[in-house]
Amino acid sequence: MSEQMLTYYLYLAAFLFASGTYIVLTRRSAIFVLIGVELMLNGANVVLASFSQFDPAMNGQIFAIFAVVLTVCEVSIALAILLNIYRKSRVSNLDELNQIGNT
Amino acid sequence: MNLIDQLNGILADLQGVWAESALMLGAIAVLVLGLARSGRAIKALFLIVLIFACYLNLTNGLRGDILSGSLFLSVHTSTFGILFLITASFLLLFKRGDKHSTEFYFFILSMLTGSLLMMKANSLLIIYLSIELVSFSSYILTNFSFKKKGFEASIKYLLFGAICSAIMLFGLGIIYGSTSTFLVSEWNSETFSALLPQVGFILLLVGIFFKISIAPAHLWVPATYQEAPADATAFMSIVPKLAALVLLKRIFEGQIFTSNHWIYSLVLGLGILTIVAGTLGAFRQSNARRMISFGAIAHSGFLLPLTLIQSTTASESLWYYSVVYAIMNMVTFYLLDVHERNGIVEIDDYKQTSRSVWIGAIFSLILVSLVGLPPLAGFTAKLFLFTTLWEGYSLLENSQMLWYLIVAVIATVGSLFFYLRIPRAIFLSQSTDNQSINLNLSTKILATLFCIVLLLLFFAPQLVMEAQQLLNNVHE
């Protein structure tokens, strides 16, 4: 893989991260925010995996696998909490979760 | 080096992680015991695990890089480790029903393991894993009130934390790409002279600042501290925060940036912003626990510069401030919990408590210590902090340090006005419906003991420094 290819992979990663950030900032549903976070994390994973081509030990790819597993844990905790909220109040829109003040 | 040598090297280095291994095994043991027993047995096992981990931590004499550089042990990691384990043992003083106590102590032990590893982390992978271990446990513990508000605080905390950790992971990727190493100890000022690794470093700081609750990554604090159970809050406000500070200190000890670098200015600026946000935010609160949590944000801002200045004074004052902060926060949340159990949640509710003079006086003294007035240890901690900032200003010739000092002094004076709202409500208000609150003797004795310790540390601050020396040299 050449330097040229690396640039393309980094563009892809930046695109994934930016679109994830956009989704996080604009969407109101908690599930969509989680999807946005996933995209951000995957962008970061692409960075790690593409840089690891210069590393004979391939540490970057191993790091990316760890990150994928941790993301799964994070999403499962989030879904469990959302399920509890939905059971109590039938809400999944973050704007309607306003029982506690924010400042 | 052949395989046998490598294996022997790993076996010899394992001594450095025995305490963490004991905590992990203990956490699993707590879960298994929870299948058969609940209540006292779980608490006893929790205490045994903590004492055993304490012993392993004290007898560990390894210092420096271990396990091919993935961890780094120092004076700070061993002494702060003991501080965290002792802090965790104080959680047993909180009143906690049998309901879900197994899972509660399991997650406390996981958070403790994560915090101990976070301090020792030298590889970016360990930094990421330990921060996530601490975060996941905190997200779950926030739910443990099992009320709708608790779930709400928890999902907000989780989404905020997930975004911060995604940003941090992106930063780690950039640092890895431009320095081609995961080890913090291999960083130097040359590899960080380009803009790209500096941007990566800022993104890494986002993840660490989220744990310390430095502005603007402090927004999760009030909701989480308000809705999590009091014992979980006390733990969350002390241990992960101090662990992340020790990690930050280690990263800055590498001298990868000179003291007039823009990253230094940015970090100092954010620290000032944190103090201002915490102090101003506390004025507007009507809920007692929310007010204390804004105070805790301001305290993170006070602690931050101690990680940036490389000197013995800075290390000593970080240790002293951390010990005093741990004691003050633990007893404050303990007293808040005692009052909340009697239905006293808002600051105005404290007007009803004017009959219980003794506990009111003790609570007032603790709050005076949080402000930083003599004759309590909070004053000495602030004094050391200001001395260190002045020293940093004169050593580094960094005018931002002077601004930091000025803001910190003004914020200390300002914090007088919000912390003392609780004593004013207790003593100076004329309330007609005086209900006497239900306090047993052990609560009074405990609170008094904590208060005596804070007084003692004011009159003999060298005790804390001697304790650090002692804890560090026990293994010899």
UniProtKB/TrEMBL annotation, chain A:
Give a GO cellular-component term: NADH dehydrogenase complex
Q: Which reaction does it catalyse?
A: a quinone + NADH + 5 H(+)(in) = a quinol + NAD(+) + 4 H(+)(out)
List, in alphabetical order, the Gene Ontology terms for molecular function in this entry.
NADH dehydrogenase (quinone) (non-electrogenic) activity; quinone binding
What is its membrane topology? Multi-pass membrane protein
| UniProt KW keywords | Cell membrane, Membrane, NAD, Quinone, Translocase, Transmembrane, Transmembrane helix, Transport
The record's top EC class is translocase
Short name of any one Pfam family annotated for the protein? Oxidored_q2
Q: Which domain of life is it from?
A: Bacteria
Summary of the function given for this chain in its UniProt record: NDH-1 shuttles electrons from NADH, via FMN and iron-sulfur (Fe-S) centers, to quinones in the respiratory chain. The immediate electron acceptor for the enzyme in this species is believed to be a menaquinone. Couples the redox reaction to proton translocation (for every two electrons transferred, four hydrogen ions are translocated across the cytoplasmic membrane), and thus conserves the redox energy in a proton gradient.
Quaternary structure and interacting proteins, as annotated: NDH-1 is composed of 14 different subunits. Subunits NuoA, H, J, K, L, M, N constitute the membrane sector of the complex.
Q: What is this protein called?
A: NADH-quinone oxidoreductase subunit K
Species annotation: Ekhidna lutea
The primary gene name is: nuoK
UniProtKB/TrEMBL annotation, chain B:
Name the residues that span the membrane: 17-36, 41-58, 70-92, 104-119, 125-146, 158-179, 199-221, 233-251, 263-283, 292-312, 318-336, 357-381, 401-420, 441-460
The cellular location(s) given in this protein's UniProt record come to:
Endomembrane system; Membrane
The way this protein sits in the membrane is described as: Multi-pass membrane protein
Q: Which UniProt keywords apply?
A: Membrane, Transmembrane, Transmembrane helix
User: Heme: present as a keyword of the record?
Assistant: no
Q: Which Pfam families match?
A: Proton_antipo_M
Q: Does the keyword Membrane apply?
A: yes
GO CC annotation: endomembrane system; membrane
- Which protein are we looking at? NADH dehydrogenase subunit N
Species of the source: Ekhidna lutea
What is the taxonomic lineage of the source species?
Bacteria, Pseudomonadati, Bacteroidota, Cytophagia, Cytophagales
